[in-house]
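As agreed, record minuted below.
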Amino acid sequence: MTRTTHRSILDETRLPSGRLEALAGRIDAAGGETIAVRAPATDEPIGRIPACTEADVDAAVERAREAQAAWAETPIERRAAILRRFGDLVLARREELLDLLQVETGKSRRHAVEEVLDVPLTSSYYADVGPETLAEGQRRGAIPLATDARVAYDPVGVVGIISPWNYPLTLAITDAVPALLAGNAVVLKPDEKTPFVALALADLLYEAGLPRDVFRIVTGEGPVVGPALIDRVDYVAFTGSTETGRTVAERAGRNLIDCSLELGGKNPLVVLGDADVETAARGAVQGAFTNAGQLCLAAERIYVVRSQYEAFLDAFVGATRDLSLGTGFDYGPDVGSLIDGDQLDRVEAHVEDAVERGASVLTGGRARPDVGPFCYEPTVLTDVDPDSPVAREETFGPVVSVSPVATAEAAIEAANDTEYGLNASVWAGDRERGREVARRIEAGTVCVNDAYTAGWAAVDAPMGGVGDSGLGRRHGPEGLLRYVDARTLATSRVGPLDAPPGVPTRWFVRGLSALTRLQRRLGGAFR
């Protein structure tokens, strides 16, 4: 009798046998409860991770806190060198990281590459600019020549990071790199759907020279681990849904700690009357269907000036139909899987509701279990009811609506008709006109003639949302300075700033008034 052996998705990868079990073994957890992690491409279990308890979180934060003091005393140039080496290791191990990322998320390999390349860019950026940004600097003193003021930056202590499942590699580490450079310790809680790539990154950080207790990982259910982490750290960086973000902000506020929140979006893409429709259509495909639309920056609403509408729609629908759907570990498939059944249910519900309200499906609109259990076709809708869920709520899937508008003014009004404000995109032949329109769209980042990459990859520029899309900024100096406390060191060269002995108060006040007038006139000439 011949025995049939089940072939696992892991057999299709370059991952060494036992790699996931070894990674799970890095987590310190006292209890025996575990959580199964499944591969979206096949819905098969690929491993188990500890279900950490509040006590496990407490132990991880305490170890991080004990290690943080020595790490903060480490010269910043040494910290920068470790992070630069870490970026080199990510590039050197990119094939294994890509395989692991695809196993955990089901995304196509071409979309996984974006994550892997983002990490070394972020690491080298902060290694380059961090020492100067955090150097003690001189500011204008209270009284020219008589006083001076200097600002120093101290790490906040232990930073808690709660990262999502959709970009588990880049979003686990993008927030951690500047926190570590600033001299903080980090305790990371990755989403329980995608923990292994975060654990692999931790291994590379340790290999680069980072002390192990400076970067700790806790795994488990969000409602258990999340609150326990927020209650014990000195700062929280959260990426996820707006609903959960409100809960995180409320808890952080009660603990009087600061937080940064990158939350949901219902991002608009605007095509102006002078745009090249073929180029705009190609950009819209990237903006709407990267990572099967499971991207906080993804375009879910497209507004096209009427004179361009039919031409754009033809080009966009044609380009969307040309996309290939698949879950292979090569660069063939354009679009991969959704993360799980819950996400598939949400996408299907949004599309079905839209159709019931009169929307037309120009392409897509179907689940594809023949490709993968959670695969869904890239979908283009028109005639969408502006009050329907697919028009108002974040779908977070490969679904986009296209609507004609009379003018650029109407496009701006439609783009701003949302409670969200994370990312937007404007397409124009005249780039300056595109920038003028972009300035009037209410979003933390607006890209002109690009969907999102030009904004996200500009690591020297801040990235974040307004409205229901969040608080705070990552990237740029702002993404580093959120992790430090600014401390002022003020010095008087003349002793107490009060009337000298024997000088009448009236004379002293007159002198101060004259000095104030002079200081206002000269501005920053004196320091």
